[in-house]
Amino acid sequence: MIPDDIRASDPELFGYLDAELVRQNTTLQLIASENFTSPAVMAATGSVLTNKYAEGYPGKRYYGGNQHIDQVEELARQRVTSLFGAEHANVQPHAGANANAAVYLALLEIGDTVLGMSLDHGGHLTHGSPVNFSGRMYRFCSYGVSESDERIDFDQLRDVALRERPKLIVAGATAYPRRIEVEPFRAIADEVGALLMFDAAHIAGLIAGGAHPSPVALADVVTFTTHKTLRGPRGGCILTKAEHAQAIDKAVFPGLQGGPLEHVVAAKAVAFKEAAQPSFRTYAAQVVTNAQALAEALAGEGFRLISGGTENHLMLVDLRPFDAELTGKQAQEVLDRAGITLNRNAIPGDPRSPFVTSGVRIGAAAVTTAGMGVPEMVEIAHLIARALRERDDETSLDAVRDQVGVLCAKHTPYPA
Ligand SMILES: *Cc1c(COP(=O)(O)O)cnc(C)c1O
User: Fold this and answer.
1) Which range of residues forms the domain containing residue 308?
2) How many helical (H) and strand (E) elements, i.e. helices and strands, does the chain have?
3) Which pLDDT tens digit goes with each residue over 398-410?
4) Which of 149, 159, 186, 199 could bond 218 through an S-S bridge, CB–CB 3.0 to 4.6 Å?
5) Does pTM top 0.90 for this prediction?
């Protein structure tokens, strides 16, 4: 994909990029937060817009020469508000974490109480982890999943909310395999007089594609990343009710960021258009179908699915019933050697440390984009099980890697 004269100008660096392209084309990408962007998204990301300073917003910039940039950002805003039926959008956050930071900066004072999902039950670092700015600047308390069905425990959530009186409730997760309905969150937020933020980082593409219910009408603010199931460039976005629009815009700039990455904003506009096409609805539905097929096949191999399965693009797998000795860390390393890329992940109530874990998280969005369907999901489950079962046998791992290569050759994200 890199022109020869450019490669020749810096073989060392572009050699690494070539190698990464080969890796993406020839191994299985099962990290739940990853996807393959279209050539159009990559063209916009690699465009001359990277040269331009555009601090401010369309029509209100601090630098000259922004007539075309303004059209780009305005188009991105129009497309995303229409895609999600939102009142206002800010397309400038550099990433999902920045989008969340901007919301906190806009709606909270330092030290305010916030209620979010606990990290070890599937919440994100920006939902109050002590090692993250969120946990250091605000007083986070948490809810989690119930022990019985491993789904969000709304009784507990309501109890904590009544006791702690948060100013903001954060819905949304980074490792939760079930639908997240916004209604019970809204009801509890109203009962305690809290604002409601819905962090749709993972599922924005499923919402846009009609495979998951939309939180936009009921949440005060919705944040998301554009690079996970939504399949756009690496970046963040905030949708908000009109009453919070000004506060959110001021929090993103000048509150938190400097010049926006307008080349990425352009690529977001491309992705928002792609997500409005009928083919994106087909993709979103297929992602869920594939995830369910993969989960079912893994259960057939002796793994336990957290909450018994999945309703979105990802699953959390408890490795212990398959092999009590096998840790998430080991599984990740073995599968890497076999050409299968995924990440270890703590499971609810995990007795092992977050660096070791008893589980892995698996996502079906990228392989779906690459064109795989249910038969491939069943094969992937067999390959995962075989690699883990025969993990001490290099010949077996090589054999799995070969089969992975065959699968990827049939469904290559970026064919030559
Ligand atoms: C991925 C994720 C984020 C952060 O996105 P980055 O782009 O990595 O900063 C925030 N919230 C949730 C729930 C996520 O899954």
Assistant:
1) 279-410
2) 16, 15
3) 999 999 999 999 9
4) 186
5) yes
